[in-house]
Amino acid sequence: MNDAPNLIAINVGNTRTLAGVFVGGTLEETVREPNDDLPALVKRVTPWWDRIRTLPQAVFMLASVNDDAANRVAATVSGQFATEVYRVGTDLPVPIGEQLDPETITGVDRLLNAAAAFAVIEQACIVIDAGTAVTVDFVDGEGTFHGGAIAPGARMQLRAMHEHTAALPDVPFEVPDDDPFGRSTARAMQRGVYQGIRGLVWRLVEQYAEYYGAYPMVIATGGDAEVLFADDALVDRIVPDLTLHGIATAARHALRVDDADLPK
Questions:
Q1: Active site residue 109
Q2: Please, which residues have CB within 8 angstroms of residue 28's CB and are 6 or more apart in sequence?
Q3: pLDDT tens digits, residue range 11-32?
Q4: Domains assigned to the chain
């Protein structure tokens, strides 16, 4: 059995849905739409399904940290295309070992990012996901996920400052200018959030490296990864669609397992 998946991978986040089409295991195209704009998602996905539906083992696979939104997406896609939508973490596992506290339920996006990163580099790594929240996770050289740290994302921090104070304005998140000082309130807020997240990541990477005894490769993903880390020497690679590659990794693993179960 060929383990190069033909699939439409959908990752439903807290506010946005990221989707991509894999043909023969290669990610060919992606789209990102708001969770509440399902017609736009269906419009973008329709030509993808027309392209792959006659190929071997063509499927929809979905992962999510937002069950309500994911249920709506799955129901819409299943009804529109008259096909089953498989859920990673429910219908098929994430192929990554875990060393976590008992009874811990870890977001499937974190596990998928770890699985995708390790599948490619096959060595210890640190995975940063900069989106609604910022996660910084460690995977050891055996491919075991150890967890890490979770902090508010850039926009969440800016929104919290605006909503929980009387005077701080509502400002967008963007790269601060080269001036080391925020010479307006808005620029000071942007600088504090931007440098705060980068400093958080640096400190955590140092702690993980001290624990591991070496500096692992650092991979960043998520909607804000380019803004935060494009010029950061600490980050070795930025892979915007890492979670989609994790879904494809789970599909590839499931196909191999199915192949191993066939009669010899």
A1: yes
A2: 20, 21, 22
A3: 998 888 999 999 999 999 999 9
A4: 7-87 (3.30.420.40), 109-240 (3.30.420.40)
58-106, pLDDT tens digit by residue? 999 999 988 999 999 999 999 999 999 999 999 999 999 999 999 898 9
Catalytic residue among 109, 137, 140, 241: 109
Q: Give pLDDT tens digits for 185-207.
A: 999 999 999 999 999 999 999 99
